[in-house]
Amino acid sequence: MDSEATTPLQEVRANIARACTPSRREPDDVTLIAVSKTHPAEAIVPLLEEGQRVFGENRVQEAQGKWPALLERYPDVELHLIGQLQSNKAEDAVALFDCIHALDRPSLVKALAKAMEKLGKRVPCFIQVNVGSEEQKGGCAVEALPELLTQAREAGIPIAGLMCIPPFDIEPAPFFALLAKLAADNELSGLSMGMSGDYQTAAMLGATHVRVGTALFGERDSQH
Ligand SMILES: *Cc1c(COP(=O)(O)O)cnc(C)c1O
To answer: How many structural domains is the chain composed of?
Structure first.
C-alpha cells in the first residue's frame, strides 16, 4: 500500500471528525468501537497494528475463543460486548469484557450484579432501549427505563449510559435524538448509537460510542 492511500480505519475516523464539526464536538468525544464479530484474528491484527484499541463482539463464546491470545499481545485493548446477553453467560461476560452494551431487563441486572460481586470487578453497562418499540427487538421499553435504571443503580452496576439499535431501513436520526433526550432526562452522559450505515448521523447527534463493523472489515459472511 502506498503512503497516500487511506485505510478504512482512517476513513471512518475522518468521517467521525467531520461529523463532529457542526455540533462543535471533539472527535475524541466519540469512541470508535471496531465490531470484529465473525472476523478471525488475522483480520483483526491489521487494525490493532494501525493503533485501534477498542473492539466489539456480540457473542461471549466467540470472543472467548478469539481474544485471550490477542489480549496477550495487545494488553491495552478495551473489549465491549455489544450483543444480547443471556443471564447464564453473565459471569463469562464480566470476566472478559470491559463494557457491556445490552443491559435490558431485571433478570440480567440480577445476574450481572451477582457476577460482578463474585469476580470483584465492576463492568460499566449501557442500558439498551427499544427506541422503535419493536416487538422482536431487544432493549427495555422506553416506559420501563426509569425503573430498570433504579434497579441497576441499587444493584451497584456502574451505568455508562444508553444504547439503541434503531429500526432497520428508516431514517435513524429521530431515534438517536430520542435516545439522547432519554439520557439527558436521566442524567446519563454515555450514548452508544450508530453503526456502519449511520455513525456520522449518530456522532452529530451526540453519540459517545459508535459501533462500526462493515465499514472497517467489509461484509460479514452471515447475518449476525
Ligand atoms: C453487528 C453490530 C454492529 C455493527 O454493524 P455494522 O453495520 O457492520 O457496522 C453494531 N451494533 C451491534 C449491536 C451489532 O450487533
So the answer is: 1
